[in-house]
Design goal:
There is one protein chain. The chain has two domains: 200 residues, 2-Layer Sandwich (Cytochrome Bc1 Complex, Chain A, domain 1), CATH 3.30.830.10; 184 residues, Cytochrome Bc1 Complex, Chain A, domain 1. The chain is built from 16 helices and eleven strands. A six-stranded mixed beta sheet has the order 1-2-6-3-5-4, with helices on both faces. The radius of gyration is 23 Å and the shape is globular. 48% of the residues are buried. The N terminus is likely disordered.
Length: 454
């Protein structure tokens, strides 16, 4: 299973890659349908090769977990690769491989997805197998115990054993305090240890059903072909009649103790780092211009070697050896805007923070030049244009968008929003989103600090 431990990169991908799709007249000819049992279908035709990417997205992620059962969404992703009534334990991925394909899965705050990339003539077999494990999975105590130990080891190696991951977990716990996002996707160790077969069975029956899923197929197929196969293999599955419960995002974005940095000192740290997370409001289509402006703002501030932060902190003032920024609003609940930096030798965190704050103040009080604005917009598109050459990327883009309530037309039109962003929009986004009391700052260091100022 693909690890869930790339939320930073996955989130950035989900937002920014939308821009790469082009305008509706230029983008892929996406088609949609829906079965009577509620299964939604998205087809992205691409006839350059006789292969397809088959993805099944479920509207359930870690933010939907019952209280005290953290980690069960990711845990269940692992269980889905165990046996069903007609597929022996461990045979799902082996069968895909024997047929010349590849498969994997991933879990986020808001969804869980499973995919296979395989020859077109094997698409029906993939649907048959996914339909089998959607409602005929075998859940037993011994299987649960084995996978629980696997998850605990994963947490040990990828979180507990990595100071940077621990700090990120602590920062988000503070940033999203009081909401579902305060809990890490992998879950808390003490709660993972208690997960059992009853928990897994309840979770399975609640969320794994056709009316809680979206089927995405990209590749050498038409909607008619996919619809016929889907009706054959998914059409008889029973809906649950239990849509995902509505979650409430925070409207007061103030972070408790925002003026005190979260400090993690660990002897294993060889390179100190600084980061700041800002809590964003929940995405709203009525405010989509503002969120598009946030993407452009992040590009102007932290877009590679030409970004303002890099040019000022790394090139001009020699305060950092690396710096960047990103905006992530593609979530059901509150998004994040992140700025990160690696200080140069002998540079204190406080000095680095002051320099970053100066750049933020400039963005909030002065309009960016026409050249900077034009370059940022162009970069957002050009950096990700290759996504259109990847079936997997296209399936990811439209599938993840569907999970947060965006239609294919919304995805294709996002570049128009980027194009329409003005210098004044960027300034207003900096004013609205980069407020100190909406943030939490982290210091990762190998030495104990005497102070904790951001």
């Amino acid at each position: 299973m693909t690890s869930l431990f790339k939320p930073l990169y996955a989130a950035l991908f989900c937002v920014a890659v939308l821009v790469a799709c082009g305008k509706p007249t230029d983008g892929p000819k996406v088609e949609t349908a829906k079965l009577e049992n509620g299964l939604e279908i998205i087809v992205i035709p691409d006839f350059r090769a006789d292969v397809v990417t088959h993805m099944l997205w479920y509207r359930v992620g870690s933010a939907d977990e019952p209280k005290g059962k953290s980690g069960i969404a990711h845990f269940f992703e692992h269980l889905m690769f165990r046996g069903t009534e007609n597929i022996p334990p461990g045979e799902f991925s082996k069968t895909v491989a024997r047929l010349g394909g590849q498969d994997n899965a991933f879990t986020s705050y808001d969804y869980t997805a499973y995919f296979q990339r395989i020859a077109k003539d094997k698409l029906g077999k993939m649907m048959e197998m996914e339909a089998e494990r959607m409602q005929k999975l075998i859940i037993q105590d011994e299987i649960v115990a084995i996978e629980r130990d696997v998850i605990l080891e994963e947490r040990s190696s990828r979180v507990d054993g990595r100071p940077a991951s621990l700090l990120g977990e602590q920062l988000r716990h503070r940033l999203h305090k009081g909401t579902a996002y305060e809990v890490p996707v992998i879950g808390w160790r003490a709660e993972i240890e208690k997960l059992n077969a009853v928990d897994a069975t309840n979770f399975y029956h609640r969320y794994y059903a056709p009316d809680n899923a979206v089927l995405v197929v990209a590749g050498a197929v038409t909607l008619d072909e996919v619809l016929a196969l889907a009706q054959t293999h998914y059409g008889d599955l029973q809906p649950s009649g239990q849509p995902r419960a509505r979650r409430i995002a925070a409207t007061d974005l103030t972070v408790a103790g925002f003026d005190q940095a979260e400090v993690l000192a660990d002897a294993r740290v060889r390179q100190p780092s600084w980061q700041r997370l800002y809590r964003l409001p929940q995405y709203s289509s009525a405010d989509k211009r503002q969120f598009a402006a946030a993407d452009v703002l992040a590009e102007i501030l932290g877009g590679g070697l030409t970004g303002r932060l890099y040019q000022t902190l790394v090139v001009a003032r020699k305060l950092a050896v690396n710096v960047g920024a990103y905006s992530d609003s593609s979530r059901l609940d509150n998004g994040e805007f992140m700025i990160y930096a690696v200080p140069a030798p002998q540079v204190e965190f406080a000095e680095l923070a002051r320099a970053i704050d100066d750049e933020i103040t400039t963005m909030q009080t002065a309009e960016v030049s026409a050249d900077s604005l034009r370059r940022a917009k162009r970069q957002l598109v050009s950096d990700l244009v290759f996504a259109r050459d990847s079936q997997q990327s296209m399936a990811n883009i439209f599938g993840s968008a569907a999970m947060i309530g965006l239609s294919p037309d919304d995805v294709l039109a996002w570049v128009d929003e980027i194009d329409a962003v003005t210098a004044n929009d960027v300034r207003r986004a900096a004013q609205a989103f980069l407020k100190p009391h909406h943030s939490v700052t982290g210091h990762l260091t190998g030495e104990m600090e005497t102070g904790g100022q951001p």
